[in-house]
Structure formats: structure tokens, C-alpha cells
């Protein structure tokens, strides 16, 4: 499986980023399209507005948020965007770009985990 990097949108792009994909539902304030340097914006792979709002009111809900978000990723528009991310990973490194302040307790670790667990096994030679 290709490398998955994670960067904040406010960080400068790196040479090893590969395909840069914004994985937030909302475009980050104060960041131009040029500055963002993203190749794709898969907003449906982000948590729904309802789930995001529910979670942001109480960080102690992370475990429940994680479970609900994984469920959202299983079907509908989120599943379509998730499959697009998988396709991009088949082509090389992908950098998930986000504007969240604290990446560690956002949707991004769950998304990375889902992508890593669903990766096809390496081709045998």
C-alpha cells in the first residue's frame, strides 16, 4: 500500500506529499485554492455536519464519534469518496489535508485506520 501522510492545510506542501486531498467538509477559512495546493477535495469522506456538531460539543465522546463515523463511511456519498481515496492510494503516496487544530482527536486518525485496514495485500511475485 502507498504511504498515507497527514498535513494541516496551513503547512507548506512537501515534495513527498504525492496526491494532496482535502478531507474536510468545509473549505478552510483564509486559505486560497493556490495556497492549499490540493489535487482533490473529497468533502463527503468527512463526518456529516450532524456528527461533527455533536462531537465538537464534548471531546469525551471520541469513542462514540469514531464508531459513528466508521458507520457513515460504509455507504452513500462517504463510501464513494472513500473508494476514490483507495484508488488514489493505488497510484502512490497520498497526503490527507485538513484544517482541524488537533489532528489526533479529529476524524483523520479514523480515516487513516480505515484506509490502512482496507488496503489490498501486496502483490506476490
Report the uncertain regions.
none
Radius of gyration: 14 Å
What class do helices, strands and sheet pairing give?
alpha/beta
Percent helix range: 25-40%
Task: Jot down its keywords.
single chain; 125 residues; alpha/beta; four-stranded parallel beta sheet; 5 helices; 13% strand; globular
What do these coordinates show?
By secondary structure, the chain is of the alpha/beta class. It is 38% helix and 13% strand. The chain is built from five helices and four strands, in the order ββαβαααβα. The chain has a four-stranded parallel beta sheet with strand order 1-4-2-3, covered by helices on one side. α1 links the parallel β2 and β3. α2 runs antiparallel to α3. It is globular and about 35 Å long. The two termini are 15 Å apart. The model has no long low-confidence stretch (mean pLDDT 92).
Question: What order do the helices and strands come in, and which of them pair?
Answer:
Elements: E1 4-8, E2 19-22, H1 33-36, E3 40-41, H2 49-56, H3 62-72, H4 76-90, E4 94-98, H5 108-117
Helix pairs in contact: 2-3
Write a short abstract of this structure:
The chain has helices spanning 33-36, 49-56, 62-72, 76-90, 108-117; strands spanning 4-8, 19-22, 40-41, 94-98. With 125 residues, it is α/β, with parallel strands linked by helices.
Amino acid at each position: 500500500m502507498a504511504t498515507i501522510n497527514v498535513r494541516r492545510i496551513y503547512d507548506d506542501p512537501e515534495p513527498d506529499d504525492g496526491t494532496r486531498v482535502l478531507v474536510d467538509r468545509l473549505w478552510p477559512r483564509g486559505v486560497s485554492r493556490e495556497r492549499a495546493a490540493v489535487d482533490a477535495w473529497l468533502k463527503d469522506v468527512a463526518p456529516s455536519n450532524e456528527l461533527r456538531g455533536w462531537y465538537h460539543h464534548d471531546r469525551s465522546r471520541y469513542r462514540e464519534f469514531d464508531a459513528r463515523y466508521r458507520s457513515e463511511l460504509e455507504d452513500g456519498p462517504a463510501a464513494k469518496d472513500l473508494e476514490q481515496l483507495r484508488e488514489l492510494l493505488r497510484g502512490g503516496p497520498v497526503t490527507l489535508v485538513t484544517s482541524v487544530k488537533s489532528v489526533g482527536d479529529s476524524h483523520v486518525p479514523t480515516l487513516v485506520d480505515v484506509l490502512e485496514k482496507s488496503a489490498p495485500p501486496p502483490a506476490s511475485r
